[in-house]
């Protein structure tokens, strides 16, 4: 292997910088537009110069530091996942033509292209996948420790601790992801001291997750790694495809739950009452009813990429949304938001992206079961988390970046393995 230059070292840290932005940088330098009032909702439609400057500079840094790696772009283009991502972005760019806010839509789609390409290039061409994961674990552990201090110093919000973030759900999601990274770290570590350290950080992350009172993240942080562990274990032992196992399990589980629901009359609202002590999934059913109505107006191509929420006072969301829905900047369901923006065309491409990512990770099982476990844990978490929150192709949302990372890692692992 050639001796690393300064640009090589910078390039290998790019994915860490990408994930550090939503976790460490933006909470301190960006003014939140979390949808607490109508003024905040309108302000979210405006551009943020600091945000744009960061991503443009980072993308230029990616291109400069990548250097000769870009000559091997054709190897990355062999992946169906990359073509599907490009297809979604092409659809998003085209949707500017029918967007109600073309200026805002164009600005946001350019940002999304920069983010996706930066992560695709930096992860696909990383020198060593395992070293990259060690750097990401260092970032995660730093975030856990910083939030631990914040929880001690800062008072909680009325509905749970938020740490360094503005909302408790943000802390919950970050701690859930940190917990999964540390579970991987525990499996990878050798020696009692390192494993004990991983256990301490894991316990701290789990404690912060509980204090955040983010029930969705808490449940998924426990359930998704367990499912991933079983799927990867069975795939490795019985030489089966882990993606097929997961899809078969999901379909079987859905059929059984539907049958039990009909048999016991334990329905959708009953589940909400059990989980959230509320029959509306903490008001989400009102949001979904409004969004479903808007989707029916343009079912095939949608309203345009990022052209519905936070697009100013002339938007449908601002003029027609009932009650508290006017304050929001998302549908609290990633799949509905995709249909809202790009219709059936967009959701079809998204489903293909998810399926392709699952099958891509299956290749890693034979090479490294621990990385396969991490990839599936992260992907399943994001897929399920989007049932109650929105992050698909949503700016620099942490969950979206994490899914991209997990989907791209298999290519990096195979490349690392072949270069040994």
Automatic annotation (TrEMBL):
Q: For this UniProt entry, which segments traverse the membrane?
A: 12-33, 53-71, 80-99, 105-126, 138-159, 171-189, 196-212, 218-238, 245-268, 338-359, 371-388, 400-417
Q: Which InterPro entries match?
A: O-antigen_ligase-rel_domated, WaaL-like
Tell me which GO cellular component terms the UniProt record holds. membrane
Q: Which UniProt keywords apply?
A: Membrane, Transmembrane, Transmembrane helix
Record membrane topology:
Multi-pass membrane protein
* A Pfam short name: Wzy_C
Q: Which domain of life is it from?
A: Bacteria
Record domain O-antigen ligase-related: where? 201-350
- Give its localization: Membrane
**What is the protein's name according to its record?**
ExoQ-like protein
| Organism lineage string | Bacteria, Pseudomonadati, Pseudomonadota, Alphaproteobacteria, Hyphomicrobiales
């Amino acid at each position: 292997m050639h001796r690393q230059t300064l640009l090589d070292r910078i390039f290998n840290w790019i994915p860490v910088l990408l994930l550090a932005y939503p976790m460490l940088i933006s909470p301190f330098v960006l003014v939140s537009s979390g949808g607490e009032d109508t003024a905040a909702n309108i302000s979210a439609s405006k551009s943020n110069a600091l945000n744009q400057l960061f991503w443009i500079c980072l993308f230029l840094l990616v291109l400069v530091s990548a250097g000769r790696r870009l000559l091997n772009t054709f190897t990355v283009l062999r992946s169906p996942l990359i073509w599907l991502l490009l297809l979604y972005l092409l659809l998003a760019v085209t949707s500017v033509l029918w967007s109600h806010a073309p200026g805002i839509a164009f600005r946001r789609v350019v940002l999304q292209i920069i983010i996706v390409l930066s992560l695709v290039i930096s992860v696909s061409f990383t020198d060593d996948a395992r070293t990259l994961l060690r750097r990401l674990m260092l970032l995660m552990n730093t975030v856990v420790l910083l939030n631990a201090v914040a929880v001690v110093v800062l008072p909680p919000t009325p509905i749970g601790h938020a740490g360094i973030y503005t909302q408790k759900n943000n802390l919950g999601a970050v701690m859930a992801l940190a917990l999964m990274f540390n579970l991987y770290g525990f499996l990878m570590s050798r020696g009692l001291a390192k494993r004990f350290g991983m256990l301490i950080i894991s316990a701290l992350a789990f404690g912060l997750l509980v204090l955040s009172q983010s029930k969705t993240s808490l449940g998924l942080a426990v359930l998704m790694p367990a499912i991933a562990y079983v799927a990867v274990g069975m795939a490795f032992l019985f030489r089966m495809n882990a993606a097929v196992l997961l899809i078969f399990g999901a379909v079987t589980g859905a059929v059984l739950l539907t049958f039990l629901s009909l048999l016991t009359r334990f329905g959708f609202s009953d589940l909400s009452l059990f989980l959230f002590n509320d029959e509306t999934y903490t008001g989400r059913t009102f949001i979904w009813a409004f969004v479903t109505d808007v989707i029916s107006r343009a079912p095939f191509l949608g309203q345009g990429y990022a052209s519905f929420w936070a697009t100013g006072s002339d938007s449908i969301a601002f003029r027609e949304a009932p009650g508290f829905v006017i304050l929001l900047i998302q549908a609290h369901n990633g799949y509905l938001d995709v249909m809202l923006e790009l219709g059936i065309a967009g959701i079809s491409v998204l489903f293909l992206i998810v399926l392709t990512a699952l099958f891509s990770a299956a290749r890693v099982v034979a090479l490294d079961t621990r990385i396969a476990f991490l990839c599936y844990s992260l992907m399943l978490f994001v897929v399920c988390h989007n049932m109650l929150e929105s992050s698909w192709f949503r700016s620099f949302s942490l969950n979206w970046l994490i899914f991209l990372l997990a989907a791209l890692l298999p290519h990096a692992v195979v490349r690392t393995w072949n270069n040994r």
